[in-house]
Each structure stands twice: as structure tokens, then as C-alpha cells.
Amino acid sequence: MARRKLIAGNWKMNGHLDHLRELHGIEKAARAHPQVDVAICPPATLIAAAVARVPGLAMGAQDCHSADKGAHTGCLAAPMLREAGAQYVIVGHSERRADQGETDEDVCGKAEAAHRHGLMAIVCVGETEEERDESRAEAVVTGQIAGSVPRDASADWLVVAYEPVWAIGTGRVPTLDDVSAMHAAIRSKLAETIGEEAQGVRILYGGSMNGDNAADLLAVPNVDGGLVGGASLSADKFVPIVEAGATLA
Ligand SMILES: O=C[C@H](O)COP(=O)(O)O
Predict the structure, then answer these.
(1) What pLDDT score was predicted for residue 2?
(2) Ligand 1 atom closest to Cα of 208?
(3) What is the pLDDT of residues 163-187, one digit of tens each?
(4) Mean pLDDT throughout 242-247?
(5) Domain spans of the chain?
(6) Under CATH, which architecture does the 6-30+37-64+76-219+229-248 domain have?
(7) What is the Cα–Cα distance from 151 to 240, expressed in whole angstroms?
(8) Predicted complex: ipTM over 0.85
(9) Could you list the active site residues?
(10) Can you give the pTM of this predicted structure?
(11) What is the pLDDT at residue 223?
(12) Which residue has the CA at smallest separation from atom 8 of ligand 1?
């Protein structure tokens, strides 16, 4: 099944208003390559300003609460993010699973909230270095899929991102064979979890993706895009990844 590549940038807790200047070059690349989907997930405080500045570029958030409103100080609900102009929301990033103790059940609830409010949910999974060293990577990741993906999910609103924790921000990347094996395992677990819809769900790779390795990673079977951290912070570094995706589309 043909799946449109998605190149998504995650700015994490980086960037102020002046950083939005980087979005012009990224928007230009997105317009030049309409065969790929491009999105940037800046800090939530910047979403509305980013949408106003580059209306042609999709924006996403980095987290949402599972509830639509209520007494949850400091949290943001999916309808708020939608109102700010977000089209995507990352849920279950490993940094939140580690820093905020988010469980698979929490992540599943967040993905459901995203869907209720018309956001594409990017559900993140990935093993730690210790888990890989103990040959438990596939069991951990497929377990995260089983626990974090809502049973009624469809390719219209679910994206999965495989991000080995040890590859995030380290410059280390798994072998292409390892990426291929894990993405195939994720597709197969998705099929068990949500049935036929699994064939249309995009599975992104994330972890030290850059302009030099993107073409190879994006050519791996079942790699339908990238979730890019550090290299998404500047147009100069992100645009080559978009171009690599466009060449393969
Ligand atoms: O969400 C993005 C990932 O955590 C990847 O980050 P990175 O590209 O800086 O390794």
C-alpha cells in the first residue's frame, strides 16, 4: 500500500518567537515537494504564532492531556491545541515516558483525545540501550504498541514513531537491517492490534536522523518518514531531510 512520507520536526523545549524565522525555508521546501507531508512541532506557546507566520506549513504539539478540560494545572487539552492551529500531536515521546512517568495506558488515552478533536496522533515507541543489549528490544516495542495504540485507530489519524532511546540526540543510529526488522515487527503488531488499517499507518523512524543519513533510512521498507529532533531546529538541516523524503515518494 502506498503511504505518503511524513517528515515531522520536534523542537522539544527549544525556540522562542525569533526562532520562527526558520519556518520560512521549511515552508518553502514543503510547498516545493507536495508529494510529502511536512510538519513542525514547536513548543505549544509558539503554535498560534507559527500558524500565522507560515500558514502553508502544518504544525503539531508535543503532548496533550487525555481529558478535554478540567483541574490539571499546567496541562494542555487536545481541543486547546486544535484551537491554536495544531494538526498533529506527539504522544508518548520517550522523554515524557521517562521524565513524567507516562505509561502505555496514559499514552493510549492521549491518542484517543487527539482523535476526538481532529488531531493526528504520533504515538512514540522505542527501547532503551539496556533493553536492546538484553535482546528485549522487539518485545518492549511491540508491547508498547499493544498498550499505547487505541483499538479503534485508523490510518486517518494514527502515526507511529519508532525512536530507539539510545539513538536520540546521540549521533548513533541503528543499522538499516535493525530498522527494517523493527519497523516490520511494528507493522505486524499493529495488524494484530487494529487489523487491516495497519497497512495504511505511517511508521516514522526517529533518532539522530540528519541530511546525511535520511535517504538511506527513508528507503528502508516500512519506514514512512522521520521524526526529527535536533536537525529540525534549522531550515538548513531540516530541508535536506524533506528533500530526501520527496525523492523517495
Ligand atoms: O522526537 C525526536 C526524536 O527524539 C529524535 O531526536 P534527535 O533527532 O535529536 O535524535
Answers:
(1) 87
(2) 10
(3) 999 999 999 999 999 999 999 999 9
(4) 97
(5) 6-30+37-64+76-219+229-248
(6) Alpha-Beta Barrel (3.20)
(7) 36
(8) yes
(9) 93, 163
(10) 0.98
(11) 98
(12) 229
